[in-house]
Amino acid sequence: MATNAAKNIFVWNGVDRNGRAAQGEISAQSSGVARAQLRTQGIKPKTVKKKGKPLFGGSGKPIKPADIAIFTRQLATMMKAGVPLVQSFDIVAEGLEKPRMRELVISIKNDVASGSGLAPSLAKYPRQFDDLFCSLVASGESSGTLEVMLSRVATYKEKTEQLKAKIKKAMTYPTAVVVVAIIVTAILLIKVVPQFADTFRSFGSDLPAFTLMVVGLSNFMQNWWFIILIGMFAAGFALKEAKHRSVAFAEGLDRVSLRLPVVGGIVHDAVVARFSRTLATTFAAGVPLVDALNSTAGAAGNSVYSKAILQIRDDVTTGTTLYQSIRATGLFPNMLLQMVSIGEESGALDDMLDKVAQHYEEAVDNAVDSLSSLMEPIIMSVLGVLVGGLMIAMYLPIFMLGSVI
Predict the structure, then answer these.
(1) What is the average pLDDT across 159-182?
(2) Can you give 227-265 as a three-state secondary structure string?
(3) Treating both helix axes as pointing N-terminal to C-terminal, what angle do 209-245 and 193-201 enclose, rounded to 10 degrees?
(4) Fewest CB within a 10 Å sphere: which of 130, 154, 189, 330?
(5) Which of 114, 98, 120 is nearest to 26 (CA)?
(6) Across 23-32, 195-204, 275-284, 298-307, least confident range
């Protein structure tokens, strides 16, 4: 892994096997290694120069899972059309806009062109290609159905990213409104309320309790706003680190997320959809059921269900049917149980699981739309009460003074 991290990108031009001018980019540890790799590909290099880095912005935007999904689909399409694998990499790389993604594709292409298999080449980049991805590609290479397997992997990645996008969609609007509400409230307390407080001092009369409370809150924010801001960032960082470092804490958060009203149902359906989609894809690829369940546990996205899937794996290993093993956990819905039972009896388990995945993906989509419609008036009401309450607290002494006069 360290060797791969030390590679650089070199820009080259030369002559190919047919005597035609050619140029491109290659990933290697040094220019000498780059020249050697080019010769193994039948290219006689003329110049090989290290690619310069941009002055601003580093090497570009980071690679996201959605980029990997698009890359996989493009590669599968090229291979289905009969384009050789190495040439497919070249075509895909030319159409990529992200420098990091282009460099990744070129590096994988060079490994494949030098004689390495696709799965081992992908395994060098575990951040972008996990064990499940690599094992499915390896299965396709060994069975001679790489283009079919890449198409299945592309579908799996696309469905997985669509599911993540739906859940993010449900949380984006409420989060944005809450952040705006906090910022507006802080500005009012730090900048606006003090102006009113100076005016109130000239009244020479007692202020309403509500106004005194808001003025006191304003004084507190003026004195401690920087500490509060640091505390919020520290709390967020501590929460993230605790979830990453403490298994018990992460499991506790996952349990709480399943019990939350409305949101818990979406999380549950998303996990069931992910479980069904992953198991259907791996099982259809010819991966043994025990190994498929092991991969599915890693892709569950919730520690409660990951533990349950590992228990299912252990039960299946002892000879228990998949239906009975899933039922024993008590976590999965009856629809999944019945479809698994039918699939086991008919020998079409992957098709049944695929139908379950489609059903629960649609359920998540509908639940997200309903949640967005439900949250919008609630959030706007809370925002109105918050900002309106501050305004009333500031104008209340003026109204009282007018009634006295």
Answers:
(1) 79
(2) HHHHHHHHHHHHHHHHHHHCHHHHHHHHHHHHHCCCHHH
(3) 150
(4) 330
(5) 114
(6) 195-204
Is the separation of the CB atoms in 13 and 46 below 8 Å?
A: yes
How far is Cα 161 from Cα 150, in angstroms, rounded to an integer?
16
* pLDDT given at position 202: 67
CA of residue 55 relative to chain centroid, distance: 29
Q: DSSP letters along 183-228, please?
A: HHHHHIIIIIHHHHHHHHHTT-SPPPHHHHHHHHHHHHHHHHHHHH
pLDDT at 327: 92
What's the rounded mean pLDDT across residues 153-173? 80
Tokens of 393: 């607290």
Phi-psi region of 301 (alpha: psi -120 to 50; beta: other; left: phi over 0): left
Write the CA distances from 368 to 90, 351, 363, integer angstroms.
39, 26, 9
Q: At what angle do helices 209-245 and 247-259 cross, to 10 degrees?
A: 120
323 closest CA partner among 304, 344, 295: 344
User: How many residues comprise the chain?
Assistant: 405
User: 377 with 179: CB under 8 angstroms?
Assistant: no
Burial of residue 3 (CB within 10 Å: 0-12, 13-18, 19+) is: exposed
Q: Mean pLDDT throughout 48-62?
A: 62
| Residue in 126, 123, 74, 136 with CA at minimum distance from that of residue 280 | 136
**How far, rounded to the nearest angstrom, does the alpha carbon of residue 150 sit from its chain's CA centroid?**
20
What is the model's pLDDT at position 342?
93
Q: What is the pLDDT of residue 3?
A: 42
Question: How far is Cα of residue 296 from the mean position of the Cα atoms in its chain?
Answer: 17
- Give the 3-state secondary structure of residue 49: strand
Beta strands 44-50 and 21-28 are unpaired
Report which of 188, 371, 178, 180 is spatially closest to residue 270, judged by C-alpha positions: 371
Which helix (H) or strand (E) covers residue 107, if one does? helix 99-113
Whether 4 has a pLDDT exceeding 60, the answer reads no
Report how far residue 236's alpha carbon sits from residue 48's, in angstroms, rounded to the nearest whole number: 47
For residue 44, the surrounding DSSP H or E stretch is strand 44-50
Q: pLDDT band for 59, please (50, 70, 90 cuts).
A: low
